[in-house]
Amino acid sequence: MRRPIIVLCGLMLMGSACSSDDSGGSAGQGSAGAETQLTVFAAASLTGVFRDAIGPDFETRHDGVTITFNFGASDSLAGQIRSEGTADVFASASGTWMDAVQDDPGVTERTDFATNRLVIITPPDNPANVVSLDDLARPGVQLVLAAEGVPVGDYAREVLQSAGILNDAEANVVSNEEDNASVVAKITAGEADAAIVYTSDVSAAAGNDVTAVEIADDVNVLATYPIAVVAGAPDASLAGAFVSYVLSDAGQASLEAYGFGTAG
Amino acid sequence: MHRRLPLPVVCLAAIGAAFVALPVVALIVRAPWGDLGDALRGAGAGNAFRLSLMVSVAATALSVAFGVPLAWVLARGSFPGRSVLRAVVVLPLVLPPVVGGLGLLFALGRSGVAGRWLHEALGIQLTFTTWGAIVAATFVSMPLVVIATEAGLRSIDPRYELAAATLGARPSRTMWRVVMPMLAPQVAAGAVLAWARALGEFGATITFAGNLAGHTQTLPLAVYQARQTDPGGAIFLSLILVAISIIVLVSMRHRLTGGR
Fold first, then answer.
1. Measured between CB atoms, which of A1, A19, A79 is closest to B258?
2. Is any Cβ of chain B less than 8 angstroms from the Cβ of A83?
3. Taking CA A28 as the corner, what is the angle to CA A24 and CA A32, rounded to the nearest 5 degrees?
């Protein structure tokens, strides 16, 4: 009578060991060796450009250096840095979360390195026929946004507020996602009618199968991304070199190719 | 009768117990008890609590309604592919919940394999609804009912059913009057585990049903959303989950351990 329960509990244990519910990712901790490790925490929207362009380019220019990226929502990353402090470099999608890290544990060489604007996306066939920002206020449109506290979620609500449709649009929100990648995923799966994400998410380099609807400049938000070396980084000069590379012509060119604006 | 326990066993057990108890104790210690009311209100505790209870109970009911027949077929039936069916049915237990949620999305979502028909022919959409959260929770918890029930069925002496048949009982009467009463403890234990699993479900829910307060934001999702912007609220929501779980598990302790 007792055995089935034990088997059950064992299977549940296995199941929960296999599950990964935390999307914050895990920062690799480099062990001692000839290789140097650099740990970069970066906003989810920077995944493509950092992982596929800037990261490899930096590693090519700096022999023996391996970069470990931890991508996630900036609020989530800031929380991890403040409680666990394992990052060398932090690139945030908003000043708010960089301020939080600046408070504790502190940063050096803080510089704005890129900008991003917002855009509406719909599934390729645009089932709800969304062609303008005002359409998001139309009853029955299923809108997906990132949660409040996540930079792109806050920016999106700013845009809706500037356009005067925040309340109506909020009534259409069907899900508050944890980062921009999850928002895009709902649209590429064809599950929602529309969402607001970054223009970098619709760039050719991002390769997302969505239809983009522009947001007028006068209501759009210019998201400014700061980058900094985190206090307590084991190799501050290497971390500083990474920051400098991101700010260099080569780094800025990569960012532009991935749909970001320049900081200057 | 009281037997002395070996010391190494007691030491390891103590470490194990501390390991499991420490996070709960830490939550209680770190909770900002002074701000209880505001933190709970801000984090949407009322909605999350109500939804969690509703979703977990509904998911358990569905798991039992479909899981027991499934277990019956697996235990008593004989058809080709039975072991494959059993493996498939148990799969959600070992699959990462987010993967399960993705699968559900592509199967039952608006553009999904079966969901497309549901949406176009019947106007039903499961994603972003409470029913979607129930579906996600049922997906991950049904295997627990199936496993418990199948094990129970196998341990029942078939001679009872033979005796009933000899005395003239039809299969359905045998099932309800002879087997089910003997199976009830097993099914109940499976149902409790399924309920606990459904209560804590996160990955499949957020991937398939989404995250919206009052509709799909169960307690685990509310904790996840509150943890950066409202850590106090997150702690209290977590403690609510702990409290519910302890109450039910303690009240069911006899069923789960089969005795003392």
1. A1
2. no
3. 165
Q: What is the CATH code for B51-256?
A: 1.10.3720.10
Reported as a single tens digit per residue, the pLDDT across A192-229 is 999 999 999 988 777 788 999 999 889 999 999 999 99
> What is the pLDDT averaged over residues B230-248?
86
Helices (H), chain A: 3-18, 47-49, 55-61, 74-84, 95-103, 151-162, 166-172, 180-188, 236-247, 249-257
Distance CA B239, CA B229 (A): 18
- The DSSP secondary structure of A70-129, one letter per residue, reads EEE-HHHHHHHHHHH---SEEE-SSHHHHHHHHHTT-EEEEEEEEEE-EEEEE-TT-TT-
Neighbour tally for A63: CB within 10 Å: 8
Which residue of B144, B212, B229 is in closest CB contact with A173? B212
Compute how many other C-beta atoms are within 10 angstroms of the C-beta atom of residue A175: 26
Neighbours of B66 (CB within 10 A): 14
CB A92 within 8 A of CB A149: no
Closest CA to A186 of A171, A172, A175: A175
Q: Where exactly are the structural domains of chain B?
A: 51-256
B229·A149 Cβ contact <8 A: yes
Smallest CA–CA distance, residue B124 to chain A, in Å, is 13
Provide, as residue numbers in chain A, all residues whose Cβ is less than 8 Å from the Cβ of B223.
none
Name the nearest CA neighbour of B238 among B221, B216, B252. B221
Residue contact A8–B190, C-beta within 8 A: yes
Integer Cα distance of B96 and B99 in angstroms: 5
Which string of b and e fits A21-38 if b means at least 16 CB within 10 Å? bebbbebeeeeeeeeebb
Q: What is the ipTM of this complex?
A: 0.79
Query: How far, in Å, CA of A105 to CA of B173, rounded?
Result: 70
Q: What's the whole-model pTM score?
A: 0.82
Residues of chain B numbered 184-223 and touching chain A (CB < 8 Å) = 185-186, 189-190, 193, 197, 202-203, 206, 210-213, 215-216
Q: Between helices B219-229 and A74-84, what is the axis angle to 10°? A: 70
Please state, in angstroms and as integers, the Cα–Cα distance from residue B40 to each residue in A94, B36, B224, following that order. 28, 6, 14
Dihedrals φ, ψ of A108, to 5°?
A: -130, 160
